[in-house]
Amino acid sequence: MEARRPAEVFHPGEYLLDELDTRGWTQTEFAEIIGRPFRLVNEIINGKRGITPSTAREFSAALGTSAELWMNLDTAYHLWKTTEDVSPIVHRAKMRSKFPVRDMLLRNWLEHSEDTEVIESQLLRYFEVRTLDETPHFAHAIAAKRSASDTEELTPIQLAWLYRVKHIAETMKVPHYSQKRCKAALEQLRSYREYPEDLRHVPELLERVGIRFVVVGPLPSSKIDGVCLWLNESPVIGMTLRFDRIDNFWFVLRHEVEHVLNGDGKDIAILDSDLIVGEEDEGLPQRERVANSAAAEFCVPQSEMDDFIARKGPRYSRKDVVNFARRLNVHPGLVAGQLQWKTKRFDLFRSMLVPIRNEVTSIAMTDGYGHFLPTLI
Length: 377
Hints:
Layout (H helix, E strand, L loop, with lengths): L11 H12 L3 H8 L3 H8 L7 H11 L3 H15 L5 H12 L2 H6 L9 H11 L13 E5 L11 H15 L8 H13 L10 H7 L3 E5 L7 E8 L2 E6 L6 H16 L7 E5 L12 H14 L2 H11 L5 H11 L3 H12 L13 H5 L3 E3 L10
Parallel strand pairs: 1-5, 2-4, 2-6
Antiparallel strand pairs: 3-4, 3-5
């Protein structure tokens, strides 16, 4: 609700003149009382000078009022005189309180404009709403570490990321999705686990089975690892690659593929936040426990991993890890990642967790990490 604007507010000099008239004091006499030049008093009375904290204290001492009275009168008068239209500020504040406008502009998800209405129009199209007061409707469930809540609200940052994945996926053309072909493709995915350079084959393989694979770099504090959603009968896997490690890539990807195979995300997008490589899934929804189990098993067969820990722990050598990984035809980083989470020793073999981001983004439909896609709105 807008504040009511008074019809007129008088300069504090008029109030001072009334006070002097009430007491029968001249301006000269009042100047002598407060020990200030006649000119200062005269200019205040004639509205040519404002009230300072010093004069406010002097007036209050001479007239038996509070200093705050004179400061408030001066402030009220100058606010009343200000006629600048601040509605654009209100409008910009409203937009930025609801949407991460600055981050979206930095990522070129919105086109830069000095015109507030242009930015608003882009936001409405981006979030598929008619007014700023309308809440974007993107049915979702958040599967976060140590949280089974499906009712947790998306942050504006997370919502913006999710819509970006959706908009990019909508531009992609893929064959009709086949669950049968997807299951068959798992064997091919397994063959890519050993060498980081083979990861560049992943986007094409997923596309062949009808899965739209999108990489969108994370926005600050989003904590998103991946998402599974569907556009009609076409599944979409979105990933952030926020952790540039081979073990994390394979765990998150296989986790999302399991969601696709199980038909998760058809009614509500499954947003995976703070996914973990180990077994800490107590309290998570059943679909998340299933996806976590499938992802861990894909990285390293869990019975083999447990046997390795029982035989070699607690002193593990690099040679042991490399030989174990070679026998399983996986990269040592996958073994190292599982070993860290199962033993809670996150210092073990960190050099084996090689970066893979460049391998993936060089081929995948990518927004971020130096790759830019059109605004799409």
